[in-house]
Every structure is written in structure tokens, then in C-alpha cells.
């Protein structure tokens, strides 16, 4: 049972900010779903850096999420997206 308790917190639906909803859709949704939809958006729009696949070159919508940065690595992306979840 203890394992289930840990996962339920991680899988708990979270409120999605308006900027994030413009990319992944209206919430609430768990972080795992947000990440999945974010990657689907990145791949669909060809925003992954061709030379370094760990980097994302955001379009206008993603720049709002990433604080206007021109390039973000996938580890930094998670931290920046967390600010749009509550």
C-alpha cells in the first residue's frame, strides 16, 4: 500500500496555467500527462534541436513557458514547466 500512496501524489491532477494549457490542453492533469503532451507538441512541431536532441528550440507558445529563452535542455524544461502547475 505504501508504494501506491507515493504514486498517487505524483499522479495527482494539477491545475494547468493558461500558457501551458495553450500547448497541452485544459487541465487539471497529472505531471506525467503534461510531460507526454509537451513532448508530443515538441516532436509534432519539429522543435527538438537536430544536433543535440536534449535541447528544445521553443516556438512562441513554448517561449512563454520557458521565460523567453531561445533554447532549453530537457532537464531545465521540467523545472520551468513546474512553475505552470499548481
If you had to describe this structure to a student in words, what would you say it looks like?
This protein is mainly alpha-helical and 86 residues long. The chain has one domain: Orthogonal Bundle (MDM2), CATH 1.10.245. The chain is 52% helix and 5% strand. It contains 5 helices and 2 strands, in the order αααβαβα. It has helices spanning 2-10, 18-24, 31-44, 60-65, 74-82, and strands at 55-56, 72-73. Strands 1-2 form a two-stranded antiparallel ribbon. The longest helix has 14 residues, at 31-44. It is globular and about 35 Å long. It starts with a helix and ends with a helix. Residues 1-5 have low confidence and may be disordered.
Looking at this protein, list some descriptive labels.
disordered N terminus, 5 helices, single chain, 2 strands, 52% helix, 86 residues, two-stranded antiparallel ribbon, mainly alpha, MDM2, globular
**How would you name the CATH homologous superfamily?**
SWIB/MDM2 domain
- Categorize the overall geometry: globular
At the fold tier of CATH, the topology name is: MDM2
Q: What is the radius of gyration?
A: 14 Å
What kind of oligomer do you see?
single chain
Just name the CATH architecture. Orthogonal Bundle
Unreliable runs, pLDDT <50, ≥5 residues? Answer: 1-5
Number of discrete helical segments? 5
